[in-house]
Amino acid sequence: MSWLVAWALGSGLASAAVVDRVAAVVNDDVVALSEVYELGGDFIEQAVVSAEGSAETRREMELEVLDTIIMRRLISQEIERLGLDVEDVEVDRAVEDVAMRNGLDRDALRREVEKSGMAWVDYRDEIRESLRQMRFSQAVIQPRIKVDEDQMKDAWRRTYASDD
Questions:
Q1: Cross-strand bridge partners of residue 31
Q2: Fewest Cβ atoms closer than 10 Å to its Cβ: which of 17, 32, 103, 117?
Q3: Do residues 31 and 66 touch, judged by C-beta distance below 8 A?
């Protein structure tokens, strides 16, 4: 068998090439560097151009986009764990709402989205992600926020009493 491995290595069959790089691992979920550029490539490139090609700026912007992806993955994993996922019908309703608020029908909205350079599938995925994050916030974060009315009144008094 070793001659087969040697032949494969010698013939170039076993050559390796870097296709992508791991940017982060979120629990068991891998985030590739290509995903960072898929989500925030334009943002990163605009920042680099503004900084006159600064490698440091590129790294900072990559990390900023990566932080967003990590946050999304963590929220997504928790949403799945809690069974709070968003159904297609809810995405459809949200798309219809966006179209209506902009004075468009669904087909016109789709044309506008695609004219902007975004694929319709990606647009729907972004809507789904927004709905998932809202649902997560309503179910997990908001119930943990306690507002003390007396503290709010005291803060209001201090703020406006100091203006006199």
A1: 24
A2: 17
A3: yes
- What's the CA angle centered on 79, arms 77 and 85, to 5 degrees? 120
Residues shown for the chain: 164
Rounded average pLDDT per 10-residue block, the chain, 164 residues: 44 58 91 90 89 87 93 88 91 96 95 94 92 88 83 85 62
Q: How many other C-beta atoms are found inside a 10 Å radius of the C-beta of residue 44?
A: 20
**Do 23 and 31 contact (CB within 8 A), yes or no?**
yes
Cα-Cα-Cα-Cα torsion 57, 61, 64, 68, nearest 10 degrees, comes to: 180
Cβ–Cβ under 8 Å, residues 84 and 132: yes
Contact 106/164 with Cβ under 8 angstroms? no
This prediction's pTM: 0.60
Q: How far apart are CA 154 and CA 137, in angstroms?
A: 27
